[in-house]
Fold:
Amino acid sequence: MEQVFENKRDCCGCGACAHRCPDGAIAMEPDEEGFLYPVIRAERCMDCGLCQTICPFRKEDHWKNEQMPQFYVAKHRDGEVLRRSTSGGAFTALSDQVLDMGGAVYGAVFDSRFRVVHQRATGRAGRDRMRFSKYVQSDLGNCFCQVEQDLRQGKPVLFTGTPCQNAGLRAAMGPLAEQGPLVCCDLICYGVPSPRVWEAYKQLLEKSRGRRWQKCLSAPRNCPGAEATATAPFATARPTRGKARQTNGFTACFLKAERSCALPAGSAPLHRLAGLRI
Ligand SMILES: Cc1cc2nc3c(=O)[nH]c(=O)nc-3n(C[C@H](O)[C@H](O)[C@H](O)COP(=O)(O)OP(=O)(O)OC[C@H]3O[C@@H](n4cnc5c(N)ncnc54)[C@H](O)[C@@H]3O)c2cc1C
Ligand code: SF4
Ligand code: SF4
Ligand code: SF4
Structure:
């Protein structure tokens, strides 16, 4: 087989096909825009077709759930948690429950080079790094393997990520997704900008200021007095909220983007395969 998908629009880069390929023939590689896509190494491929069979975007019922959901309004009681969360701290409340049960939490963090990657945490410190929306496609790395291992050992798992990453996880886990103690939690998602654009933006700022990045946070919404900043990479940078947020180069691009990921904007509300959305 040469390609898992016929059209790039039919692939979100979830990596489920790479995880399930029995011959390890698929690698996730960035395209010219910097988004991750599966690439088949022809010499290893046995043409079994499994990658296409399990791809969540090839079957609508793999990623769409048109049942009417139940809605709850929730806000964390702890003001400190609110200041350190994007939209009310539901993620912290949910993950606290799983950590208290001795489980593992998966989510997106900035690594030491401020790339956005998914990681596993079994303690509060690791979990806290997952707080805040990072508006970049997160690299799932070997998280699906780790989730599978946790589920096989009977460990409770909370997986958080975009709706398509959750659809990918379920496809990658197969029957284990239904049998194991797995809670899938996605987010309201407008799309994810390219890691390559993010990298270029970081380098541009470092060059113009002549300093290395020190920290990077996103602004909590509707939280006056919050200390976090929207994509302000330098410890001394002033917080960018409100109008300043619109004029922050990277955030403005994200907010104005008509198409910032593989699917057309506006399709995101349809995919609701995770049990929870925050
Ligand atoms: C890519 C992206 C697009 C979004 N689009 C919208 C939107 O269109 N409208 C809207 O109202 N809200 C949007 N959000 C915000 C999202 O709805 C809130 O982050 C969510 O409500 C969580 O709030 P919280 O306070 O509970 O979580 P927080 O404590 O802030 O936790 C953040 C959670 O987001 C996850 N996360 C962070 N960055 C990423 C990433 N790059 N990829 C995958 N998971 C990530 C973490 O794993 C964690 O579970 C978006 C967030 C992201 C990451
Ligand atoms: S399984 Fe995921 S990464 Fe693979 S082709 Fe389908 S959508 Fe793309
Ligand atoms: S057809 Fe089978 S062997 Fe080839 S890439 Fe797909 S899953 Fe792997
Ligand atoms: S809009 Fe969000 S959930 Fe939908 S494909 Fe794009 S990144 Fe994935």
The pocket of flavin-adenine dinucleotide (ligand 1) is lined by residues 85-92, 107-108, 116, 130-136, 138, 160-162, 187-190, 192, 278 (CB under 6 Å). Confidence is low (pLDDT under 50) at residues 223-241, 264-270. The chain has three domains: 8-63, 79-191+263-277, 195-256. The two ends are 38 Å apart (CA to CA).
